[in-house]
Amino acid sequence: MGVVGMSSGCTLAYTEAASARQGLRKGAVLPFSNRAGLPYSGLGQVDTEVAGRMAVREGTLRPAMGDRYRPPADSSPGAAKRKFVMKSSLIRRFVRGKRRKHRRVAPPEGYDRWAVTYDSQPDNAVLALESRLFSELLVRIVIEGKGVLDIGCGTGRHWPEIMSWRPARLTGVDPSSGMLQRLKVRYPNAETFCSAGDRLAEMAAGSFDVIVSTLALAHIPDASIAIREWHRILKATGSMLITDFHPDAIRSGMKRTFIAQGETIEIEHHVTEINQLQNIARKCGLTVSFISERSIDDSVRPLFERDLALREYDKYKGLRLVFGMVFTKT
Ligand SMILES: C[S@@+](CC[C@H](N)C(=O)[O-])C[C@H]1O[C@@H](n2cnc3c(N)ncnc32)[C@H](O)[C@@H]1O
């Protein structure tokens, strides 16, 4: 955990306080938890699978308030021995923290583990900023009466909003069966395919009017293969809406990690620059009709404030966290 015990009911954060304090050294992986928003997954639940979130490599975050407490000097008999025992246990903790395994996993494995808590992220600034961006983009597309395909749909976070525009059909694709299971809890009759977004051979050319993909493209190793495939599936004059983590955020060190059973698990992702994406789209025959970005700004300050992380807010304010694009098939 990063800064610990910050929000009420933050049980997991609190239980991992010790490792967080140790993690405040340069080079440590500090999950961004419910701060800057990287998918934070329900700190209210005592479940070590939960700490799903992106992380920053950071060496300057301040320790939790508790670390400032210094007990009075102990001059009683045996104090020196006790002090030594205490010190060596601190060293053990330090070494344990340092040796915590860091494992990089493929997205389906990562999201299968994350799925249970993915929808419990009320303080996640990435999701907050992305949700607003998504609404801004969605109004530029005609959804009513159309066939919509959501690639990397996850738990169907955007489905209530998409459905409010009354599509004729809404289909989801995701390689994580765990995420799709969560979606099915809410939408038992949903049409879904458990598949990677760049391998959709079972879908006929020109079979959807609209393709939506949010916060998923960077998990696909080669964005150009995915965009070409999506272009194939799209009907003529169809629309494509994509959002994702901003390359600037990834460059600044943010990673998609979570902590499970003492391991830091990082979900593989890849950077594609925005101008590269535009070029890929143009080469496929897509016209870029709208681009927008969202940075860490005052609208998410309360999330940092609630987490007593205003120093991080000041540090990252202005960092572009998410971007979104709308394309039209010409
Ligand atoms: C951050 S979640 C986003 C989920 C949902 N779209 C949302 O906005 O909440 C990323 C999703 O991308 C999915 N994903 C990972 N690799 C993928 C791939 N190769 N093709 C399509 N989706 C993928 C994951 O399983 C996960 O559900």
Q: Taking strands numbered 1, 2, ... along the chain, how are they ordered across the largest sheet?
A: 6-5-4-7-8-12-11
| Named CATH topology of the domain at 124-252 and 269-299 and 317-329 | Rossmann fold
Considering DSSP H and I runs of 4 or more, what fraction of the residues is helical? 25-40%
The CATH architecture name of the domain at 124-252 and 269-299 and 317-329 reads 3-Layer(aba) Sandwich
Let me know the CATH homologous superfamily of the domain at 124-252 and 269-299 and 317-329.
Vaccinia Virus protein VP39
Radius of gyration, in angstroms, nearest whole number = 22 Å
Q: Helix-strand pattern, N to C?
A: HHEEHEHHEHEHEEHEHEEHEHHE
The geometry reads as globular
Unreliable segments (pLDDT under 50, ≥5 consecutive)?
Answer: 1-74, 79-97
Number of helices: 12
Class of secondary structure makeup: alpha/beta
Q: Major β-sheet, in short?
A: 7 strands, mixed
